[in-house]
Amino acid sequence: MRLLPNEVEFLSAWAREEKSPDPYVLPAHRLQAAHQIPGVMLIRAIKAWARSEGKRDEEIFKLGVAENPPWPWASADETQRRLEEILSSQNNARAVT
After folding, report:
1. Which of 13, 7, 6, 3 is nearest to 68 (CA)?
2. So what's the pLDDT on residue 96?
3. Separation CA 26–CA 5 (nearest Å)
4. Which end of the chain is less congested by CB atoms within 10 angstroms, N or C?
5. Cα–Cα distances in Å, from 95 out to 18, 31, 88?
């Protein structure tokens, strides 16, 4: 599953924020909270990306440069659909291996 550039940018910023002592005051985490998406879904999306790209999930830290990227999806429906696509690609990859 290929992530779109805006998805990589957001997930990269979100992952970098996770290393902060209080990530929930930072921009990407505030967007996550505003859109009511559990953090575990974003973690799973990062892991699915890493698996599909043959990379380590920590490599996401280096991919984005924005500290305050916009939310990558236009609506709640698009968010749900896209995250389900990303996560199902990981599940499909596991089933094949």
Report:
1. 13
2. 43
3. 21
4. C
5. 29, 32, 10
